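In this supplementary section we document a worked example of the pipeline. Step one takes a protein sequence of length 156 as its only input; no multiple sequence alignment statistics are reported here. Step two produces a three-dimensional model, which step three serialises into structure tokens for compact storage. The input and output of this example are shown verbatim.
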Amino acid sequence: MFVRGAKQEDAQALYTLCCEQAAHALPREIFEAVFSGLLRDSRRRLSVALEDGHIVGYADLQLNLTLARCEMIAVLLDFYVSEPMRGRGIGTGLMISLARQAQSIGCTGLEAGCQRVNVRGQEFLERHGFVRSQHLFSRCLHPSRQMGNSPDEKSR
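The serialised model returned by step three reads:
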């Protein structure tokens, strides 16, 4: 397993992973615009995990300078390993790489959120040193995506 920063040529493989994660096809043009924007954003670190030369996971870190703590923290916005590749240490390797990246650029902490129904994700985070410390609240602002419309949102 190898972790590196994402490149423009990774767009197709990441699109496939993101659609797998979302459980539906994402709008291709919007995905490509968002992906390209993330690659240019100096406050983002988009990493990919490769196994035998194929992208099997990815993570998106956002670097935030907090006023209340006067510190830089890294927030794990997205983290995903393809279902058939789980249990092989890929997520662990990706998490170790992310923590090292964040620490090397001066971040004092790493934060992550996880859906309440994603027990495996919560257990993964806790195994990697994350502590439940806050409640994350969400508010949908798009009428066609009101909270409670998807099975995951109904169980929050």
